[in-house]
Amino acid sequence: MAELETFRMLIGGRPTDAASGATFETRNPYTGRPWASVPDCGPADVDAAVAAARSALDGEWGAMTPFARAACLRRLGDLVTEHAEALARTEVADSGKLYREMIGQLTGLGGWYHYFAGIAPTIEGRQIPSPNPDHLVYTRREPVGVVAAITPWNSPLLLMTWKLAPALAAGCTVVVKPSEHSPASTLRFAELIEQAGFPAGTVNVVTTNDRDTAAHLAGHPGVDKVAFTGSTATGRAVARAAAENIAAVTLELGGKSPQVVFPDADLAAAANGIVAGVFAATGQTCMAGSRLIVHADVHDELVRLVVERASTIRLGDPNAADTEMGPVANEPQYEKVLGFFDTARAEGNTIACGGAAESGLGGLFVQPTVVTGVTRESTLFREEVFGPVLAALTFTDEDEAVKLANDTPYGLAGAVWTKDVHRAHRIAGRIRAGSVWINAYRVVAPSVPFGGFGRSGIGRENGVHAVDGYLADKAVWVELSGGTRDPFTLG
Ligand code: NAD
């Protein structure tokens, strides 16, 4: 067997093994073989990481000016771009995502650090009028403190960056914990932290195969804020754990996002956007546009176009330039997706294409799948698959379309496809989701807020206001007269 690549954690500026010496293997979902060995840390290692973050906050990092913080962020952005190739290859080996997608993502990732570097020196307090002329009042915007950043297995570095870049711009220190299914790229990224000039302990990375140890981080009394991306069920547990310490949380959770197609839409463009929304990244994206809500008049034609394209999607080696869809990222997820096919059949839905594993290719492949005849009661209408499965149903008027789009506990994303500019904006306003695309899908940027309504989460990542989630206002009152006042009155 080929030798496993080994990785180490980053705690207090030092490459670190688990105190117990334990490791676990991470498996390449395409080859099916373990390819890397990473530390399997326990609660004591988490304690050490949180302590290192606290000491950097109280020490060198906490004393740095926003301009100096920005310089570190800019250097980190440059290093990420320089190492994009190696980072992308690591993500492909760990999660089976396409190299062609990951190299694009990693090449663009430096832009996030540059964007938030630009924001760091613009963080300003205010001078506030007081009713008492003898008071000068101003605010300081201070970092909330030590942040735990907990990330999922899809796009580990992108989703970590959405937390790390604004947290560092705000002056926080961070303990990152990537998913046990794809921990290696975050450990490779950690090697760049010191090169970028961050003082020891500013950013720490721990890895564990033990969800109780992950929970230990989320509920750690030394953590002031938990920034989490993952499933709604785990998000709930994280919020509960953080509540014990009155720690702040942002939660980026699941979705069941609608693609609403009106009869006047450019159907070829809509079909292309629907394919991008649900089959790119093997459908393993939180914002997957997995519910097709299409006007009855164009249902058959649109489904025909989507099925035609879905049936020709090239499955295969994620590293090959012409592959369009890689494997599902891990065994439990693979079993879960196959289970949804059985459920769809049992509930009387029609499988228009796909609906099975693709066994000839070796890895954990499933076919791009389109399911029609779905109703509001169908499991596929209600539950997040996190795989390449589109569920289609029809509407006949605008109100019904909106009602169907919003008939979900989630509210992460959605799209409206129409050439009618009035209708496009009207519907965008009525869909309850954190991102709505008009005649487009799956576009994100450092400058544009991202997050969800309802069970899709709390708070927003990206955009100028993302730093607000990592800052706390401090009011400073200055007595100007030098006189004494009645000690028994307020104000
Ligand atoms: P998950 O909830 O199983 O795990 C997410 C992270 O939480 C992992 O690092 C895991 O180790 C950790 N974790 C597990 N139990 C924990 C606990 N008790 N306390 C603290 N941490 C714990 O999610 P996943 O399967 O890795 O990712 C898939 C999910 O993520 C999907 O539901 C998807 O929609 C969601 N997601 C959301 C976004 C978004 O931005 N909204 C982006 C990507 C993925």
Outline of the structure:
With 491 residues, this protein is α/β, with parallel strands linked by helices. 37% of the residues lie in helices and 21% in strands.
Protein architecture, described:
With 491 residues, the protein is an alpha/beta fold. It folds into 2 domains: 5-252 and 461-475, 3-Layer(aba) Sandwich (Aldehyde Dehydrogenase, Chain A, domain 1); 258-438, 3-Layer(aba) Sandwich (Aldehyde Dehydrogenase, Chain A, domain 2), CATH 3.40.309. Helices cover 37% and strands 21% of the residues. The protein is built from 15 helices and 23 strands. β6 (127-128) and β7 (135-143) form a beta hairpin. α1 runs parallel beside α8 and α3 crosses α7 (184-195). The chain is globular, with a radius of gyration of 24 Å. The model has no long low-confidence stretch (mean pLDDT 96). The site of nicotinamide-adenine-dinucleotide has 29 residues, from α8 and α9.
Number of strands: 23
- Bound small molecules, which ones? nicotinamide-adenine-dinucleotide
- Total number of distinct structural domains: 2
The helical percent reads 25-40%
CATH architecture annotation of the largest domain: 3-Layer(aba) Sandwich
Q: If you compute it from the alpha carbons, what radius of gyration comes out, rounded to the nearest whole angstrom? A: 24 Å
Based on Cα principal axes, name the global outline.
globular
Widest sheet: strand ordering? 15-16-17-14-13-18-19
